């Protein structure tokens, strides 16, 4: 097809593209004459994600440098190659993905017909440019007797507040996947703790969110962790704006305005991650990200969206909404308030109740155990985590009790703190049985709570077996038929590029016995 015909064709499909920029691949494109790139367009690296027994999602994004900008709106064909060996001798699949400016030239390929529990290597090509080579690995067959699952649990990587050295270590670990539970980017800044700087202003538009992702994705340590392992991803608040809840932000912005911002943020998220679009793909304002995967007979893993569908925080400050400590807040007891939204909550409770796998790992973006403290006028609760949604928390744990589920372990992030905790129907009531176990990982870089408030929280909550907010890092989760082990790998704040990580503490949950034990 000639260039002129191609442009006409693109114009004809422009309406479809505008309606549904991610779904509708341009059906025609320029003859793929070899393009000469002045700067390698794969500067944001490569990634894989959503591992299944027979499939994986591969990702990259073609980035135009200043010198290559003349071509910036064009549709492009990008070649994807998948190999069975690290030497790239045995190519098992080759595909072409068409992308264009409507999706930021992001490239997603859902590779199917792969073998279970198998290593693959992949790369992208466009014109004379090649990407780096990524490694990925498929999940085991659903009925496989799996002896081990190794996960790096991570969250909260404020670019300004530290170097991503945790990712440099994650890249070198033997893992099945990285489980990243949100705050992948931060929209906001705190000059007091900045050891490096965000580019540009606080993002509100698609172009600004793209720019923010570009800056994070250029980080070589983050790129290494993506190139080394598949990732399983969930977002939290900072991918959009601090403490948002559904269509509400802290400034009480008009919900319609807020949803426009959220749609831009969600689209940019999709454009930069190895994720599949859910059934709401044609509407970026409502993007389903929650998911479930199985690891042979060993484990089911759920990843829950705790932002998109939740009720607004209880007893918000009328001037500055969002998260805060609340006391004497009757709204907390309102049973209609939801953390997951009714649809996701029902989906979770059905699938959790029916799970026959040995371990049930419920991954979600924040903390389920209580961090409440005594105040002169009553108990005081952080209203942005599950403490602010106690009825929803009770329903979740009641599901565990009603279905007589053993071996439920919840995994979280968001609070910039390493937590090992007992989960009871009635938090901190030692008469109430322990029904599940919780591990929450500290942040990759983001600053945590000070020593004094941390100590008060620790002393006020008998269910918190471990609670340390002073160090940064990630958590190594090793699942075997006998136990789920958590090693908190940490360094001091702020994480410097030369720092190393050590094990702050290790806990295990033993088969058939709820509650973490220190080792
Ligand atoms: Fe965070
Ligand atoms: Ca957060």
What does this structure look like?
There is one protein chain. With 519 residues, this protein is an alpha+beta fold. The longest helix has 18 residues, at 255-272. α3 packs parallel to α5, α4 (206-217) runs parallel beside α6 (255-272) and α7 (342-354) packs parallel to α8 (390-402). The chain has 2 domains: 3-137, Purple acid phosphatase-like, N-terminal (Immunoglobulin-like, Sandwich); 149-518, Alkaline phosphatase D (PhoD) (Purple Acid Phosphatase, chain A, domain 2), CATH 3.60.21. The protein has a 10-stranded mixed sheet. Strands 12-13-15-18-20-19-21 form a 7-stranded mixed sheet. Strands 3, 4, 6, 7 and 8 form a 5-stranded antiparallel sheet that branches. The chain has helices spanning 3-12, 14-19, 165-172, 206-217, 220-228, 255-272, 342-354, 390-402, 451-460; strands at 46-49, 56-61, 76-83, 91-99, 106-111, 119-126, 129-130, 134-137, 149-154, 177-180, 230-233, 291-295, 299-304, 325-327, 359-364, 373-375, 378-382, 408-412, 418-424, 434-440, 464-468, 471-479, 483-492, 502-510, 517-518. Bound molecules: fe (iii) ion and calcium ion. Calcium ion binds at residues 182-183, 236-238, 414.
């Amino acid at each position: 097809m000639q260039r002129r015909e191609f442009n006409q064709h693109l114009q004809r499909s422009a309406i479809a593209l505008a309606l549904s920029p991610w779904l509708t691949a341009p059906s025609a494109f320029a003859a793929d004459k070899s393009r000469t790139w002045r700067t390698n367009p794969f500067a944001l690296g490569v990634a894989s994600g959503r591992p299944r027994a027979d499939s994986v999602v591969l990702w990259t994004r073609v980035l135009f440098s200043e010198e290559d900008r003349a071509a910036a709106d064009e549709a492009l064909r990008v070649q994807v190659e998948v190999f069975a060996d690290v030497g790239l001798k045995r190519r098992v699949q080759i595909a072409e993905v068409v992308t264009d400016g409507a999706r930021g030239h992001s490239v997603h390929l859902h590779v199917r017909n792969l073998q279970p529990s198998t290593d693959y290597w992949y790369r992208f090509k466009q014109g004379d440019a090649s990407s780096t080579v990524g490694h990925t690995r498929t999940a085991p067959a659903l009925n496989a007797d799996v002896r081990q699952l190794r996960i790096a649990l991570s969250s909260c990587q404020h670019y300004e507040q530290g170097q991503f050295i945790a990712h440099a270590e994650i890249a070198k670990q033997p893992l099945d996947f990285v489980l990243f539970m949100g705050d992948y980017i931060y929209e906001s800044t705190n000059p007091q703790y900045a050891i490096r700087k965000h580019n540009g202003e606080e993002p509100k538009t698609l172009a600004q969110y793209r720019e923010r992702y570009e800056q994070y994705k250029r980080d070589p340590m983050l790129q290494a962790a993506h190139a080394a392992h598949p990732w399983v991803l969930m977002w939290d608040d900072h991918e959009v704006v601090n403490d948002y809840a559904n269509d509400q932000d802290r400034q009480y912005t008009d919900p319609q305005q807020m949803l426009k911002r959220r749609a831009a943020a969600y689209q940019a998220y999709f454009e930069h991650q190895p994720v599949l679009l859910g059934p709401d793909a044609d509407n970026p304002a409502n993007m389903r990200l929650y998911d479930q995967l199985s690891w042979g007979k060993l484990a089911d893993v759920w990843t829950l969206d705790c932002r998109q569908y939740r009720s607004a925080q209880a007893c918000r400050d009328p001037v500055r909404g969002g998260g805060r400590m609340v006391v004497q807040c009757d709204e907390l007891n309102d049973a209609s308030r939801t953390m997951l939204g009714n649809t996701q909550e029902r989906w979770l409770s059905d699938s959790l109740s029916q799970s026959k796998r040995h371990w049930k790992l419920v991954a979600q973006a924040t903390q389920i155990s209580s961090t409440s403290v005594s105040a002169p006028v009553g108990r005081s609760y952080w209203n942005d985590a599950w403490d602010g949604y106690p009825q929803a928390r009770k329903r979740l744990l009641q599901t565990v009790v009603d279905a007589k589920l053993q071996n439920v372990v919840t995994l979280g992030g968001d609070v910039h703190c390493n937590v090992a905790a007992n989960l009871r129907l009635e938090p901190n009531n030692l008469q109430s049985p322990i029904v599940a176990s919780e591990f929450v990982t500290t942040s990759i870089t983001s600053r945590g709570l000070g020593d004094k408030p941390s100590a008060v929280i620790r002393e006020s909550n008998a269910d918190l077996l471990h609670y340390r907010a002073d160090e940064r890092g990630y958590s190594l989760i090793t699942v075997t038929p006998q136990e789920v082990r958590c090693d908190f790998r940490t360094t001091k704040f702020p994480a410097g590029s030369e720092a190393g990580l050590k094990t702050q503490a290790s806990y295990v949950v033993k088969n058939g016995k709820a509650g973490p034990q220190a080792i």
